Amino acid sequence: MLYTFDIIVVGGGHAGCEAAAAAAKMGSQVLLLSMDMTKFAAMSCNPAIGGVAKGQIVREIDALGGCTGIVADKTSVQFRMLNRSKGPAMWSPRAQCDRTLFSIEWRKILEGNTNISFWQDSVVSLIVKNGKVEGLTTSLGVKFYARAIVLTVGTFLNGTIHVGQAKLAGGRMGEMSSFGLTEQLVELGFESGRMKTGTPPRFDGRTIHFEKLTVQHGDEYPSKFSFLPEIKPIEYQKPCYIIHTSPDVHRILESGFVDSPLFTGIIKGIGPRYCPSIEDKIKTFSDKDSHQLFLEPEGFDTHEYYLSGFSSSLPLDVQYNALRKVEGFENLRIFRPGYAIEYDYFPPVQLYHTLETKLIENLFFAGQINGTTGYEEAAAQGLMAGINAHLKLNYNEEFVLSRNQAYIGVLIDDLVSKGVDEPYRMFTSRSEYRILLRQDNADERLTELSHRIGLASDDRYRNVLNKQKTIAELILLINSISVSQDEINPYLESIGSALINQKRKLVDIISRPGVFINNILSVSDIAVAIDNIENCTQEVIEEAEIIIKYSGYIEREQLLVDKMSRLEKVKIPVGFDYSKANITVEAQQKLQKINPVTIGQASRIPGVSPADIAVLLVLLGR
Fold this sequence. Notes:
- By secondary structure, the protein is of the alpha+beta class.
- It folds into four domains: 4-199 and 343-452, FAD/NAD(P)-binding domain (3-Layer(bba) Sandwich); 202-335, Beta Barrel (Elongation Factor Tu (Ef-tu), domain 3); 479-555, tRNA uridine 5-carboxymethylaminomethyl modification enzyme MnmG/GidA (Arc Repressor Mutant, subunit A, Orthogonal Bundle); 569-619, DNA polymerase, domain 1 (Orthogonal Bundle).
- 35% of the residues lie in helices and 18% in strands.
- The protein has 21 helices and 22 strands.
- The strands form five sheets. Strands 1, 2, 6, 7, 8, 9 and 20 form a seven-stranded mixed β-sheet that branches. A six-stranded antiparallel β-sheet has the order 14-15-16-17-13-18, with no helix packed on it.
- The radius of gyration is 26 Å and the shape is globular.
């Protein structure tokens, strides 16, 4: 058997699957090493993909030629476009998926690429010589060699599971931890830390009184993540449900606080601020009598359900007794209790923007090892690490996305420039350029860039060019049409919009709030004209409408991008001595630690002020 590869990807989670698929698709010989080959891209927590800002990331992954969006579309149980009542910068696709089918679809993709080999085992150490990684050793004593290694180890490094006072080693419930890597990396000079996450209990749906719960259906006309036309939206959807806790539920949960490892100091790791456990919610928001939770199916052919918002490390009997006080859960049976898990991570300021480590050449980190939380954030990092590992081995220029190009660029820049002091989760508010980084235009932003490096296919690129051409034709058409009072006033009156007293350009009407192209089709000759535009899909109509309505905001944001991009072009020489610059001691220390590549990156490091940046610009001759 062959023991030498171009790239070894350690870990078969969301980051590992994207890393292996991308590098292999670009031509590298890849070994995907996983502790359990039946759980590729396992959805350890909620079996859902997307959500606020996360949905934008998934569409970006798809635009680049990644696979998460495709797998989500093929295994969706329910699809919803969140935040439709807000502006388009906030629209975020989310799909509830079939947990089992999700892993199966990923395995089909991975096994369908002959450049990917597999090995089921755990890694105990890396082979490092002269500051460069050369291979690894597994728990079976097997040595594999490679020119680059991508570590996507998730929550498995020294993972510890907590349920009340019970504590056991594990990276997930029922799966063993990985030992040895953290200790070796620390010996090599890396800084490490501990983080904590959690997951809710799983229920037997046959014991739930669904008639007592509030139903939450998917979209009437569901969309999808993938831009590929052959990938179709979901047809049959299962409902989710909304439930609420009560004072009785809270009292029972509070009775278990004395045995909660979260409050007794047993758990040392830092937990996610924006996805707190139920005990955290009750303690932090003690004035609230109720918390909203979401009951969601695990798949099409199972009775298993998941309770989003109820992650917990409380003792089993406390969880069980409290849940039985929830309306509809009176006869509830539990498949598995909620639990917390602590694991090792490595502060991501130790990485370049390519996700290669600064200490060990050709060693890349991606996913929760970098202090992030969420499948989507992990998948994005895995994709970028896989791409950059392949490019470096083939002496090509690195592939780095800027903050104005993608949420993926925001994610990685935040990690590398700012670091993390809690599990990092993406939000739309983290981006300065939300109106440019919408979910609908991810393909127009990124597919050409990916096509240049050999990841996005020719068909993907042609689809983008055709879409851009069709949008331009539609906008040109709308600008050329005028409508009379008789044509449009009845519609304007029906929606409470101001009437017109003379012919007006259709573009002016569509620019109004509450006016939509689809509704105008029935009151204007535009319907006939649109029918003559080839490939004028609903997606095209929606994006053209966004461009028309928000043109002023888009132009203003683009001016800001142009202004800020100047700082990204000012390179900082390697080995620049910040101690000789007349800047604050804090700025000197932060800059020395992170070693930013550009003045733009330096400006985003916490503790570096605008005055410090001005001094650096002068020293660099700007």
